[in-house]
Amino acid sequence: MRGGGGDRLHRHAAAAMAAPALAGLALFVALPFVAAVVLSFTDQRLGSPLASRFVGWEQYRRLLADPLFRRAIANNLSFAAVVVPVQTGAALGLALLLNRRLAGRAIFRALFFLPVVFPMALVAVVWVVIYAPGPSGPMNALLAAATGGAWSPRDFLHDPAWAMPALILLSIWQGVGFQMVVLLAGLQAIPAELYEAAVVDGASPWGRFLHVTLPGLRSPLIFVAVVTAILAFRLFDQVRIMTRGGPNGATTTVIFEAVAAAFDRQEVARGAAITVIFFLLVVAITAAQRRLLRPRGVAR
Amino acid sequence: MAWVAACGLALVYVAPVAMMVAGSLKPDARVLAEAGSWRAISLAGASLANYRDAFIRVDLGRSLLNSLVITTSVVILGLGVNSLAGYAFARMTWRGRGWLFAAVTALMVLPFEAIAVPLFYGVSLLGWRDSYSVQILPFVANAFSIYLFYTFFLGLPRELEEAARVDGAGPWRTFVEVVAPNARPCFATVAILTFLTQWGSYLWPLMVTGGPRVRPLPVAIAAFYTLPPRAWGDILAFGVVMAAPVVLLFLLFQRAFVRGVATTGVKG
Amino acid sequence: MRYRLILLLAVLALACRDHHGGGRTPDIEVWFHTGQPGEQRTIEAQVARFNAGQDEITVHLTLLPEGSYNAQVQAAAAAGALPDLLELDGPFLYRYVWQGALRPLDDLLPATTLAGLLPSLRTQGTCGGHLYGVGSFDSGLGLWGDRATLAAVGARLPVTSGAAWSAEEMEGILDRLAAADPDGAVLDLKLNYAGEWFTYAFSPLLQSAGADLIDRTTGRAGGTLDSPAAVAALTRLQGWIRRGRVDPNLDDAAFTGRRVALSWVGHWEYPRYHAALGDDLVLLPLPDFGHGSRTGEGSWQWAIPAASRSPEGAAAFLAFLLRPEEVGAMAAANGGVPATGAAIARSPLYRPGGPLRLFVAQLTGGVAVPRPRTPAYPVITAAFQRCFDDLRNGGDVHAALARAAAAIDRDLADNRGYPPTRGRR
């Protein structure tokens, strides 16, 4: 082991190594976060010649009283409530399907994962074509074919009832691949002996699924569920590009409202308050994950 | 049986992509007209006219260059900065290491959207806008990347570094010549995850870029799509060019992609 | 290995170096919104003509998407990154003046140019006694009609605002048209448009009914925007939508495809409508809801930021754009009302006897009402747009208007009534 002089050099080197990243995090992450909280207690506007004032909880009061903001939170919640189980379930199904020794499994995996690498802005634009109104729109045509002509064409993105489901579908399409890959890796990590033991015990395929697969997948399942839930609250790109929060607030989301306030209307204090609320929601979800992931059998 | 199901699902799944590619090769008027039938993916009369239009009319080349510059800069600078920090946390003792690492893991919880608004406000006040640097620098340091590197370096056998120390190498040389070359999988994972995130970044460039000069692809396609009249063929060609680099990377480095994504899952 | 890394970083640093224009003084940066393709082509041609015609100044044109134009400009203003000359959507000018972002144009433009301007444009660009904005065209808003179909239901065709249909008369005509129409949708209100359109197009309805967006002296909306007259007028409009008289117009071809006989829209559709309907196209004044036919006015106008590095150069380009032939070129491209009397006289559309003469008459005859000229305008229009969104989907009109008025008044209080300031400079 080196002596004291070397250790000091070591410590300096360590600090120097960590410094750029820490400086970046402090400047571009920690500082803005603190600024968000501070801003949310003012009435600061971008570019206003008036001095900003401290207004206490006023921004939060207004947000919680604003029907459009409440609708945004409700939209995020309903989005999460649908997407998390459906997308996870679909991903699990696909992972189970691909877990067998299928010919060309790598190709299948690649095909299902492909949409994940697409930028969401691109997915949004392409699906605008898919949701085109009129009978020649792909989705309308598909539904007409599937219902034997009983379906009358709709303009999904401008219909208050169909806009959100339309966004949900395309988000699921884009995101399933990611979850599938994680669950597939999880499936492959389950030792074969457990299945063999279950067979020996006389378990049916469904029983094997319930008692070997699902418990073995507990950690990755919770992980993908939480990630998807958080992504559900970050929902922005599709909304901004395809529906702009309409029609009539049917698809507005928390982040869309934050950008509308801070960027479109220069109300940075209100936007900051929205993002603080958003952060609290994310913390709540993450805390729930931590609780769920606590090893079983630990006394509460 | 399962194979048939898989094939069927894959075909349905890939249909939008096929439609995008086929539409990019058709004249604009035919894109919407044929979208609702199997002809959506037909390649009859394919031509590259839309690509030419996209490059000339809406400066696709410029947006592509912007995306490439910004994304590769974030990736490369990020790899350097975050790996060093991860190593410093994992392998070295220094004052403040403990609580600083706790702070870093706490920051991992913050999605970008939580700080987008105050960051936008801050850079606007500073007059830092509509440039490459404002799209690169805020994203170089990344708590999650640091964490990935940290976990990986923890798992490296200590013999490597001890051998380097015996050779008389200081911490910098040890890192560059011994540790980093053995961390290729981790570098690959972080590079891929960062590339994916940055290539598709829309919210931030939307707020800090104006005209086409430094605007990256996602904002450009969104602006192009709102431009009257809507030339769908050109727009889809734009989309193909936008997706091509990441798809190419994915196909080339599929294993690394999958491993990277799966790793984030195992971490939990 | 280390050296290669350093080299790579150096190359990256070079690539990151931001692209700026060439020399400082002779370059003028100009921002324009991406609107109709014709406007875009025209401005690009004008920039080329200007650059070619002299070699003291080079103009660089940047096109910003219309959807986020105002947000972009505001962010740039806060960042001190405004160009030398830029366009602003008419009534948004006053907020920029209040913020101190613009400089007056009185001393920069030739007096002859200013003298020939349409009075409505002078009004639009004036704030606090100084001229801050100049448009190269003004807008016209009216009711375009399909002459043949209207004649078939026996509708008279007023040619002056004074003779406009009353609201009841219009409703009767709509009913008669609907009876003869396969899907009953006979009116196009451009419901497919987004944003500022709704305030521009439908606040004249309020004014025609004797109400308004705000009280123009106090700036408050309460009692004016949600007055009984306003509620009645918008309820009637909502009734047309509810009864299916209005085409959703998702393909923007309801009128050109002859699905509807009437289209409530502005001058910019003239080229397309004329191409589709030819001599069957007729321009009518908007209906009279009780206090006379009213219509909208105002459009994009040019302004020079206070921080412009070369205001004289910017003014030179602006003076070029205001030459009769240039004004005529832009007006020909988008069908707008040319900014100067000279250009109007030369315009085949707008000179006496021209098909769009009604627009000129409306602008000079007090029929056209400017949108509120106040720094609060962005908030006013946002509130009205939201209100219109509510009522077009069947919401309660009075409640929607009351909410909008409350939002406007609350913003007024938040900003301490928008006191006159010297801005940030």
Q: Biggest interface and which pair forms it?
A: A-B, 99 and 97 residues
Main sheet: strands, sense, barrel of chain A:
none
Q: Fill in the CATH topology of the largest domain in chain C.
A: D-Maltodextrin-Binding Protein, domain 2
- Helix/strand/pairing category of chain C: alpha/beta
| Tally of alpha and pi helices of chain A | 13
Major sheet of chain C = 6 strands, mixed
Rg result of chain C: 23 Å
Task: Give the quaternary arrangement of the chains.
Answer: heterotrimer
Dominant shape of chain C: globular
> CATH architecture of the largest domain in chain C, please?
3-Layer(aba) Sandwich
Provide the CATH superfamily of chain A. MetI-like
**Poorly predicted ranges of chain C:** 16-24
Count of DSSP strands of chain C: 17
Stretches of chain A where pLDDT is under 50 for at least 5 consecutive residues are: 1-5
Number of domains of chain A: 1
Q: What's the CATH class label of the largest domain in chain C?
A: Alpha Beta
What is the averaged pLDDT score of chain C? 89
Number of helices of chain C: 17
CATH architecture of chain A: Orthogonal Bundle
Strand content of chain C: 5-15%
Q: In terms of topology, how is this protein built?
A:
The complex is a heterotrimer of chains A (300), B (268) and C (425).
Chain A: H1 4-39, H2 58-65, H3 67-99, H4 105-117, H5 120-130, H6 138-146, H7 163-188, H8 192-200, H9 205-216, H10 218-233, H11 237-243, H12 254-264, H13 268-293
Chain B: H1 2-24, H2 28-34, H3 49-57, H4 60-91, H5 97-107, H6 113-125, H7 133-136, H8 143-154, H9 158-166, H10 171-179, H11 184-199, H12 203-208, H13 217-226, H14 232-252, H15 254-267
Helix pairs in contact in B: 1-14, 3-14, 4-8, 4-11, 8-11, 9-10, 11-15, 13-14
Chain C: H1 2-16, E1 27-34, H2 37-53, E2 58-65, H3 69-78, E3 85-89, H4 93-98, E4 102-103, H5 111-115, H6 119-125, E5 126-127, E6 130-131, E7 133-134, E8 137-138, E9 141-146, H7 147-152, H8 167-179, E10 187-188, H9 197-208, H10 228-242, E11 246-247, E12 262-266, H11 270-277, E13 281-284, E14 295-296, E15 300-305, H12 311-321, H13 324-334, E16 337-338, H14 341-346, H15 357-364, E17 368-369, H16 377-392, H17 397-414
Parallel strand pairs in C: 1-2, 1-3, 10-11, 10-12, 14-17
Antiparallel strand pairs in C: 3-15, 4-15, 5-6, 7-15, 8-16, 9-12, 9-13
